[in-house]
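Q: Given only this backbone (151 positions), what sequence would you predict?
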């Protein structure tokens, strides 16, 4: 087992995520507390805050809140392609549509993470990508650019 080092980075990220989520939620409520405005914001905010709280509690119970094992660190050469892939996804949303961009993003991410079973990769990417696109197209009150799913 590697030596443990004191690390405040994870805690700082968790606290920043919680503070930003609370600020965004309170600002959304201040602007308009209608159901239509909070339909996605309130549940998602509660989920994010619950995940942050759960992570902090689990790390406190294990005694690893301010510690990180050296083997946990993901090398930069494995992280940067994911960041680039996400940037390409966001840039491509208006060009190729939310539905197709999401399917391609999920497939490319799975390939980057080592998935090589093509039927599983294609099936999951298609089901998840189109499922998410359909869900958001139905739930959001404004039109989203889609290439295949026309609403």
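A: Predicted residues:
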């Amino acid at each position: 087992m590697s030596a443990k080092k004191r690390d405040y980075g994870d805690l700082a990220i968790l606290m920043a995520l919680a503070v930003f989520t609370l600020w965004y939620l309170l600002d959304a409520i201040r602007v308009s507390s209608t159901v239509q405005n909070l339909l996605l914001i309130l549940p998602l905010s509660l989920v994010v805050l619950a995940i942050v709280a759960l992570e902090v509690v689990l790390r406190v119970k294990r005694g690893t809140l301010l510690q990180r094992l050296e083997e946990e660190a993901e090398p930069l050469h494995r992280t940067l392609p994911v960041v680039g892939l996400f940037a390409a996804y966001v840039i491509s949303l208006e060009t190729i549509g939310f539905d197709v961009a999401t399917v391609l993003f999920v497939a490319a991410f799975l390939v980057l993470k080592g998935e090589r079973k093509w039927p599983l990769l294609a099936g999951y990417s298609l089901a998840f990508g189109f499922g998410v696109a359909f869900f958001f197209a139905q739930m959001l009150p404004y039109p989203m650019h889609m290439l295949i799913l026309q609403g």
